[in-house]
Each structure stands twice: as C-alpha cells, then as structure tokens.
Write a structure and sequence with these properties.
- The chain is mainly beta.
- The radius of gyration is 20 Å and the shape is elongated.
- The chain is 6% helix and 49% strand.
- A hairpin with a 5-residue loop joins strand 8 and strand 9.
Amino acid sequence: MKLTMLSVLMTITIVVATNVASSAQTKELPGEATTITATIEAIDATTRTLTVKGPGGNFVPITVPKSVERFSEFKVGDTITARYYDNIVLRMKPAGEPAVDTTTGGVTKGSGASPAGTAATQRTITATIVAIDPKVPSITFKGEKVKWTYSSRVNDKAALAKVKVGDRVDITWTEAVTVSVTTPAKKD
C-alpha cells in the first residue's frame, strides 16, 4: 500500500468538517474519529475493483492500488471497517520565517491474519489571513507558496479577536485512516 491508499479508503469514509480558528501562538482543532463499515458485494480482479455496500445501502466501487499485496484475500461478504481521524493545528508565524509547503506520510501494514493497515499523511502550509468577518464570525486564509484560499466559520470568537488581516500562520493537517477486513463466521 502506498499513500494513494488513503485516497482510495477515504471514498468509504465520512470526512469530518472542521472549523478553522486561530490564536495568539498555537491552536489545535481536534477532529472527530469516524468509523464506517461496508460489506464487499462484488470483486473484479481484473480491474482490482471492490464494490462495497455502505451503511446507507449505497454501493461504492473502490479501485484498490496494485501496491495492496493482499488483494487476493478479499472475499465477497467480508466486512471492511475504516476508522478515519483528522485534526488541524494553526501556529502563528514569526516575522521573517520562510513560508513552507510540506507533505509527509506513510503506510503501516497490518500484521494479522486478515488484510489491514494504517495510512497517514500530514501537510503544512504557510497562509496569510486575508479577511476576517467578526459578524459571521469567519476567517479567510490564502496560501503563500500554493494557490489555495480557504474560508470558514470560527467557533472561538476570543481567538478570532487575537488575529488581524495580514497575520501569517502555518496550518498543519493530519489525517489517518485504519482499515481492517473481517470474514463473517461460517454458518453451520
């Protein structure tokens, strides 16, 4: 499995929306852990596609990368459980500190009898606050090294009052997904 597995697995997870806020030094915005379970309904070995049935009865095709070595162990009827977690950390950027745009990540294979693994990624970018609306309340960031603009409501009005347009921040997103597969017990 490679980092692309995170993208594949995210199609069967519910991404938790996080409101962005800022503070004088560092502010952590912990995400929520979301767990979703789906059942494998069909397997196309030629295209390496699993069709899974989600909790709402919806069918979702998932193309599994060739880097997933245990693809042949998936069986119709197996249950895939994915646990997704994210969080955001904002850090006020000192004057003169260079802008950053970094991404790191990795995959850890599961060691059990069934296919499993964890994929994680972390990205940090430098952004400038380009707008603040205390009435909504909301904040807008614009990336310095990347073409990126993001606006969000802010729950923490006290933190919003401590920043101003033109302030620079490093925004670090961390995402992780753990996936496990279980085979249903055989009926007698």
